[in-house]
TrEMBL record:
<keyword id="KW-1133">Transmembrane helix</keyword>
<dbReference type="InterPro" id="IPR007890">
    <property type="entry name" value="CHASE2"/>
</dbReference>
<dbReference type="Pfam" id="PF00211">
    <property type="entry name" value="Guanylate_cyc"/>
</dbReference>
<dbReference type="GO" id="GO:0006171">
    <property type="term" value="P:cAMP biosynthetic process"/>
</dbReference>
<dbReference type="InterPro" id="IPR050697">
    <property type="entry name" value="Adenylyl/Guanylyl_Cyclase_3/4"/>
</dbReference>
<keyword id="KW-0472">Membrane</keyword>
<feature type="transmembrane region" description="Helical">
    <location>
        <begin position="12"/>
        <end position="33"/>
    </location>
</feature>
<feature type="domain" description="Guanylate cyclase">
    <location>
        <begin position="439"/>
        <end position="575"/>
    </location>
</feature>
<dbReference type="GO" id="GO:0004016">
    <property type="term" value="F:adenylate cyclase activity"/>
</dbReference>
<feature type="transmembrane region" description="Helical">
    <location>
        <begin position="373"/>
        <end position="397"/>
    </location>
</feature>
<dbReference type="Pfam" id="PF05226">
    <property type="entry name" value="CHASE2"/>
</dbReference>
<dbReference type="GO" id="GO:0035556">
    <property type="term" value="P:intracellular signal transduction"/>
</dbReference>
<feature type="transmembrane region" description="Helical">
    <location>
        <begin position="322"/>
        <end position="341"/>
    </location>
</feature>
<feature type="transmembrane region" description="Helical">
    <location>
        <begin position="348"/>
        <end position="367"/>
    </location>
</feature>
<keyword id="KW-0812">Transmembrane</keyword>
<protein>
    <recommendedName>
        <fullName>Guanylate cyclase domain-containing protein</fullName>
    </recommendedName>
</protein>
<dbReference type="InterPro" id="IPR001054">
    <property type="entry name" value="A/G_cyclase"/>
</dbReference>
Length: 699
């Protein structure tokens, strides 16, 4: 008993380990293949940490000048508009403005002493003012940067990358944006989102086919003297300076040219001295918005500001080494297993699992917030929960199974089927019972005594269980009720205690089919038991149909639902009656009549059983309808012809027919048996009153 308990505990532990390891392997595999729902969930948790964590510091070196409206006509006075050509262009109501305006903007900011001014604007096609813009870029090119783009272009099924430069600088070509040209005056403004469409990082340098290009932010940092602040990898995960519209102060571009605001806001240019100035569209009118970790879209220039600020302050977020996620998943699986072992209280286990999962999520937030290290959250937590809850589910199943086993030990006075029926309609169960038409099944192992003497008691129990389990399953498969086991014998009833089939007489053919399938299953089981225990098993079966008394039989305190009556006794006699005929399944005449549309059988005998005077017709059950082989059908035909000759006392002719049958199938038991009977009658003829009856000499 102690060894068994120890083995069960060891098996339980191994299964729990298997569940936790399985959870870890599953999540590890999904992580390896970048399973989209998990990847998006992980990215979302990173975004939450960005939203609720500390923001990147606002760099005092950065100034953001915005084009917050397509026209300032409603803001500027007529005198202000007339005083400056740039303000006049800004008030026309026509967007885009002439490019001479941007030449004036660059000149104004550069002359104020800014380290660099970058325009997050595109000038792809030639327009009025290009000459002025080119002139100022030639003049202030060491501290001015314009925007360019790379676009994928498909042509004839092939995809290529197309560079678009400002029209004023297009004649110079790719060197303007190349990383190999420090004097270049263009940086790409492209922002590449991740698989879920959200921009979380900035590319400062990127290779486009044969062009090693730099971004707008990168070119501005280089010209401002901060090339060493640019990540060596060429890109970095951004810690934003705040949500959209709530980070760097936006100063409208027109204030550069209005004397009052130039003096008040810019302190006559002092506020721009030694600054990194970004000029770009701002507001809903521009449609230049980008999806970032924040819920609301962010104006494109603010992402470039974030790239500038992150480089200046070094406030990038970093990913851990590649082995971190597998290590955390493995740790989570181990922790799930240890938690299950730590306590036996399911509710406490669940609380601990959830608490640790939440605690780890909080830890990833704190580590990202304070140490700028992005730890995976989803896969480790799911491994912990899947492993832990999987173990809880397994233990729940074990607990329920144990409860059922204990319940079975104390409810053996009634079968589960009867118990359910009693619960549904307890008044139906009276000690007097009721008359029911049923089919009764008996089976018994041939030579069981010899088997029991050749194996140990433990092996004998195993053999019986191996035999009784599948046989019983095939009884219940066809609605049969296991009435009782008696050693190796099975008694089953078809038609009671309840029969749900619309055909009330289907119990006859279902009992036959159950017996046939049992014999079929027995053939493979025989080989298994022969190989394992060295014993040969065979089973004989008897089926009879008739009216019985069905109900609770026994005392008031202990009773068993069963059936009783002459039909039961006859079924019990049919089982051993197989032996002299060397058959396996014998059925009564009533069973045959009710089931003949579903079965193949041959008439075997008009049998006078022990203790009776009237003959009872019996048949050998051979197969389901339509499944009898042609050879067997021929044997049956010859046998039945021989039996009729035998019943007519034409014994020589009968022997000849039985010989014909045996020529077709040498081991046909009934033909052998009747040939022997006929040979006996040739020596000692039967009485004149005999009409073919077979007398059973033993029960």
């Amino acid at each position: 008993m102690a060894k068994t308990a120890k083995k069960e505990a060891s098996t339980r532990r191994l299964i729990l380990i298997g569940i936790c390891v399985g959870a870890g392997l599953l999540l590890g595999l999904l992580n390896l293949i970048q399973f989209k729902p998990l990847l998006e969930a992980e990215l979302y948790t990173r975004d939450l940490r960005v939203r609720f964590g500390q923001t990147a510091p606002l760099s005092p070196e950065i100034v953001f000048i915005t084009i917050d409206k397509p026209t300032y006509q409603d803001i500027l006075t007529e005198e202000e508009i007339a005083a400056d050509p740039a303000l006049a262009e800004m008030s026309t109501g026509s967007w885009p403005w002439r490019r001479s305006v941007w030449a004036s903007v660059i000149q104004r900011i550069s002359q104020a002493g800014a380290k660099v001014v970058g325009l997050d604007l595109m000038f792809p096609t030639p327009k009025d003012g290009d000459q002025e813009l080119l002139q100022i870029m030639d003049q202030e090119g060491s501290r001015a940067v314009l925007g360019g783009t790379f676009e994928e272009v498909s042509n004839a099924g092939r995809t290529s990358v197309q560079l678009t430069l400002p029209a004023a600088l297009a004649s110079i070509g790719a060197p303007e944006i190349s990383n190999e040209n420090p004097a270049g005056r263009v940086g790409f403004v492209n922002l590449w989102p991740e698989k879920d469409g959200i921009v979380r990082s900035a590319d400062y340098r990127r290779q486009f086919q044969d062009i090693p290009a730099v971004s707008l932010a990168c070119r501005m940092l280089e010209k401002a003297g901060y090339a060493d602040r640019i990540p060596a990898t060429g890109s970095g995960i951004l810690r934003f300076a705040g949500p959209p519209n709530f980070n760097y102060k936006a100063i409208p571009v027109y204030q550069l040219f209005v004397p009052a605001t130039w003096e008040k806001v810019f302190e006559n240019g002092a506020k721009l001295k030694d600054k990194i100035v970004l000029v770009g569209p701002y507001g809903n009118w521009s449609k230049d918005v980008i999806r970032t970790p924040y819920p609301n879209p962010m104006p494109g220039p603010e992402v470039h500001l974030a790239a500038l600020g992150a480089a200046l302050s070094g406030s990038f977020l970093t990913l851990p080494p590649f082995w971190t996620t597998p290590a955390l998943i493995a740790s989570a699986a181990l922790l799930a297993f240890l938690l299950i072992l730590a306590t036996k209280q399911p509710i406490l286990r669940l609380i601990l699992l959830v608490a640790i999962g939440v605690g780890y999520a909080v830890l990833t937030f704190l580590i990202q917030d304070k140490l700028s290290l992005i730890l995976p959250a989803v896969n480790p937590v799911l491994t912990l929960l899947f492993g832990g809850i999987g173990c809880l589910g397994y233990e729940f199943v074990l607990e329920q199974r144990e409860k059922r086993r204990v319940s079975g030990m104390f409810s053996t006075m009634v079968s589960p089927e009867v118990l359910s029926y009693m619960q549904a309609d307890p008044d139906r169960f009276r000690l007097t019972g009721e008359k029911r038409m049923v089919s009764i099944f008996f089976s018994d192992l041939a030579g069981f005594t010899t088997i029991s003497e050749s194996v140990s008691a433990e092996d004998l129990a195993k053999i019986l269980n191996r035999y009784l389990t599948p046989m019983s399953d095939l009884v219940t498969k066809y609605g049969g009720y296991i009435d009782k086991y008696s050693g190796d014998a099975i008694m089953a009833d078809f038609g009671v205690p309840v029969w749900v089939d619309p055909d009330p007489n289907s119990h006859a053919w279902k009992a036959c089919w159950s017996a046939l399938e049992q014999q079929e299953r027995l053939q493979s089981l025989k080989q298994e038991l022969k190989a394992e225990y060295g014993c040969d098993i065979d089973a004989r079966m008897g089926i009879n149909t008739g009216e019985v008394a069905a109900g609770n039989m026994g005392s008031d305190k202990k009773f068993q639902y069963t059936v009783m009556g002459d039909a039961v006794n006859q079924a019990a006699r049919f089982e051993p009656a197989n032996k002299p005929f060397d058959t396996h399944i014998m059925i009564g005449g009533k069973t045959y009549e009710m089931a003949k549309e579903k079965i193949e059988a041959r008439f075997l005998a008009n049998m006078i059983v022990k203790g009776k005077t009237e003959p009872v017709p019996c048949y050998e059950l051979l197969a389901k309808k339509g499944e009898l082989s042609e050879t067997k059908a021929r044997v049956v035909q010859l046998f039945e012809e021989g039996w009729k000759l035998h019943a007519a006392k034409k014994f020589p002719q009968a022997i000849a027919k039985f010989d014909e049958a045996l020529a077709v199938e040498v081991n046909d038991g009934p033909s052998k048996a009747y040939k022997k009977i006929c040979e006996g009658f040739l020596k000692s003829p039967p009485p004149d009153s005999w009409a073919g009856e077979y007398i059973q000499t033993s029960k």
